[in-house]
Amino acid sequence: MLPNTGKLAGCTLFITGASRGIGKAIALKAAKDGANIVIAAKTGVPHHTLPGTIYTAAEEIEAAGGKALPCIVNVREEDQIVDAVDQAVQKFGGIDILVNNASAISLTGTLETPTKKVDLMMSANTRGTYLTSKICLPYLRKSKIGHILNISPPINLNPLWFKNHCAYTISKYGMSMCVLGLSEEFKGEVAVNALWPQTAIYTSAMDMLGGAGVEKQCRKTDILADAAYCILTKPKSFTGNFVIDENLLREEGIKDFDAYAVAPGHPLLPDFFLDVDPDTLAMKMEAQGASPAFKDGKKQDVMKHEGPKSESNEKAKHHVHFAAVNATGPVAETFKIIKGAINDDVVKSTQGVYRFELSGEEAGTWYIDLKNKGGSAGSGEPPGKVDVIMNMSSSDFVKMFSGKLKPTMAFMSGKLTIKGDMALAIKLEKLMGQFNSKL
Q1: Using CA atoms, how far apart are residues 108 and 222, in angstroms rounded to an integer?
Q2: Contact (CB, 8 A) for 167 and 106
Q3: What distance in Å separates the CA atoms of residue 60 and residue 82, rounded to the nearest whole number?
Q4: What is the mean pLDDT of residues 170-197?
Q5: Where is this gene product found (predicted)?
Q6: Is 168 annotated as catalytic?
Q7: pLDDT tens-digit readout, 52-95
Q8: What is the model's pLDDT at position 426?
Q9: From the CB of residue 29, how many other CB atoms can be counted at a distance below 10 Å?
Q10: Which of 11-20, 257-266, 344-353, 410-419 has the highest mean pLDDT?
Q11: How many helices and strands, by DSSP H and E, does the chain display?
């Protein structure tokens, strides 16, 4: 891991979302130098599921050798940001570094994303980053160090990163656009950069998104803390960069990345927004049986249900059902085995209905009913209310249920999209072990 150099001793860092996760890890790294940390986060009382508060984080920071100022800050509220900045200036004499880490996430499609979640992501991610930067800039300009670091991705305009969670992508790219604009506007006065992980990082958010066992496929927050430390100790001339943690640390001479892994030697999940050029990516996807919708700039013709009273919908349903019933390929065989593995205990313990919208060679609608009496599985529309909808290629479906493709890996890489009850989706992942032992 990257050693501390003492360069941040006496510096004041204003870090949003620093009560846990990546923000706290960056704070603790700087605290080892003897830095002052303003913990600008919402959690003042213990959350019912998430660990840590601004006060427990303050205790850890001071134990690590730093000075802490815990402040209740919701970055959507301008007056709370202003108040925390005023407190920081009064206590520490100024602000040298701003880390815009606070962020909201909802990996849902356009029609499945409530307006209040859209507003949350836009106001916390884009507006919150812009506003906090604006309020801190007068003090950052006076600092000899003067850095802003946004935890946001390179702007990748591959449609792959928009189609499954458009609102989230726009909000994160808004943070990155702040880097583009502010780095030019304040060049020579304040360095403005972005930092993003090469692989998934194990945090409370990842725990909720990935389900049981996801931690083995992640790195610790330490890798982002080390990369952030490296950026923040560079001169102001290092600005306008979109830094990937692993690339930077390799340049700094780090060779052993197992030290950052939760489970050294275990395959790691790639993070969002990072891929090769679209043509090469399309070739890789096709080699794995997928049908990329962005190839040659043309969207694939995928049959979608428009609504219960749509004539075209009825035709589509009958067409898909007919194709599925007469299929004798790997998907149909997989569902036969799944159906044979369903029993009363599985139904009782799961209580969920799953619909699969498959594309590719065996395109069609399939279902697994693990809620109604006895359970069932097969082609066409499932009986009753659907709890989870999964979209993926037919070849990836077969790989997933045979144990050759991890569901979490499929989800993180964009091969699988999930709508509905995530807790029930995770339950199905656990059941796959029972199913794939028979496939």
Answers
A1: 29
A2: yes
A3: 25
A4: 97
A5: Mitochondrion; Peroxisome
A6: yes
A7: 899 999 999 999 999 999 999 999 999 999 999 999 999 999 99
A8: 81
A9: 27
A10: 11-20
A11: 17, 12
- List the structure tokens of 317: 């349903």
Label the pairing between strands 97-100 and 67-72: unpaired
* Tokens 């029609």 -> residue: 111
Token pair for 166: 């458009």
366 touches 355 (CB < 8 A): yes
Q: What is the DSSP string of 234-277?
A: S-TTS-S-EEEHHHHHHHTT---GGGGBSSTTS--PBPTT--S-
Radius of gyration of the chain (CA): 24
What would the two tokens of residue 238 be? 């290092």
Nearest Cα residue to 142 out of 83, 95, 84: 95
Bridge partners of residue 67, in order along the sequence: 36
* Gap between the Cα atoms of 33 and 27, Å rounded: 10
Q: What gap in Å lies between CA 310 and CA 144, rounded to an integer?
A: 64
Residue with tokens 């982002």: 224
Residue 113, classified by CB atoms within 10 Å of its CB into exposed (0-12), middle (13-18) or buried (19+), is middle
CA–CA distance, 139 with 190 (Å, rounded to integer): 10
Instruction: Provide CB contacts within 8 A for 116, sequence distance 6+.
Output: none
pLDDT above 90 for 34: yes
Q: Can you read off the two tokens belonging to residue 290? A: 């997928």
In one-letter notation, the amino acid at residue 230 is C
> Phi and psi dihedrals of 321, rounded to 5?
-60, -45
Q: What are phi and psi of 356, to 5 degrees?
A: -115, 120
**Catalytic residue of the set 130, 139, 168, 354:** 168
Q: What is the largest CA-CA distance in the chain?
A: 74
Crossing angle of helices 54-63/21-31, nearest 10°?
30
List the domains of the chain with CATH numbers: 12-287 (3.40.50.720), 330-436 (3.30.1050.10)
